[in-house]
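Usage

Read records sequentially. Each one opens with the input sequence:
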Amino acid sequence: MPEHIALMAPGAEASAEHAEVRSPHDGSLIATVEQADRAAADRALRTAHELYRDRDAWLPAAERIEILRRTAEIMQERRDSLATEAAREGGKPLMDSRVEADRAIDSVHLCIEHLRTTAGTVIPMGVNAASAGRVAFTQHEPIGVVLAFSAFNHPLNLIVHQVGPAIAAGCPVVVKPAAATPLSCMRFVEIVREAGLPEPWCQGLLTAGHDVAGSMVADPRVAFFTFIGSGAVGWPLRSELAPGARCALEHGGSAPVIFGPDADVAAAVPLLGKGGFYHAGQVCVSVQRVFAHRSVARTLADGLADYGRGLVVGDPTSAETEVGPLIREGEVTRVHEWVGEAAGGGAEVLCGGASITSRHYAPTVLFDPPADSRVMTEEVFGPVVCVTPYDDVDAAIAQANSLPFSFQASVFTNDLDLAVRCARRLDAAAVMINDHTAFRVDWMPFAGLRESGYGVGGIPHTMDDMRAEKMIVVRSVEL
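and closes with the structure output:
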């Protein structure tokens, strides 16, 4: 019997229509989830805003730390079930979902660490006649109501990255997970409440239609909006924010790699293969466009093709599976159309290039696709890696920089000067040297530039965004 998930917003009545959560692997019904209409969404925001406006109700830092500590303990106890649930609803293989669960637990610890070790600053006073007899300092305060919209591809850890810092900062938070993967989010909301967080401080809901979600974003009671997902959705939502509301947007990219003539192909293949085919390529910084020096390009491409052919594609809840399904059947059709377009333009399909089922696409390596094909100009968000030979590295960098996206990039070389040249000239917020573009740890800054995003992610950086520094100036004749 599928599980039924109630609306997690105190006092709000659910819409008459329930959402269905189906396995991306086989389409089976996993759960039904209640949805919020405009009235329910308004009630959730009103609850959060009234809580924020009542300063006597704010939770002391020590209490927030204890709640987060207990949250991490409960998550550790349920680590395997959290990983399995994320694999079932999102399609990320169990081996990788277990890593995600571990990261999510560590992310909660990072919230605690940042709360314990950061404070305001002392502002210099008494340095001239105007500032004499005064002392000034700043203290952190919660910025206000946080509204979080999340994505499907990391259904647990992304939620922790948005909700955990809000709790740590002392902000009431309303979170809307991706419609395809709401279960991990709701489980996390249940856990923080079990850990001692009063229900109104963290509310979880799906919305019955895009208009309801849009009305929440535009609501003047929202102080900070955190969005992870498509730029086609995120940028228009940003334009709807009320005056004074702040935001952070994390969108996608088309991650480039510059591969030098001296780079170690054997060492690079498993890194680039993992970076390209991890979660079937459904990661905003997946390896997608590899520009390799002509002297090694074919060898590298053949190595990646061998790697791709060796991957186990199938049921994400199986311990042996390395590549799971795409999130929707329509995505398989779209990816295949893009691959076919590139092949029709002259790209050589070295492996894959076909669907395995209506929900699974074979890991695919394309050699020398047309520069204007969609696999080279847009975010594939599927298990496709393109290898393009180059003769001049500056021309390769120019092609890497030719898109409106700018997120993470990488360069493979043992030549220090080449590594620095690429790192300085690539349009990217981060450049990995001798590592794949999808490398991330949860305390580092994670930022999309240009169309790829706005603001900086990562636990400490998100938490800083959710706090305001209030300055207090004290005047005394004794100073």
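Summary fields computed downstream for this record:
- The first strand starts at residue 3 and ends at 5.
- The chain is about 40% helix and 20% strand.
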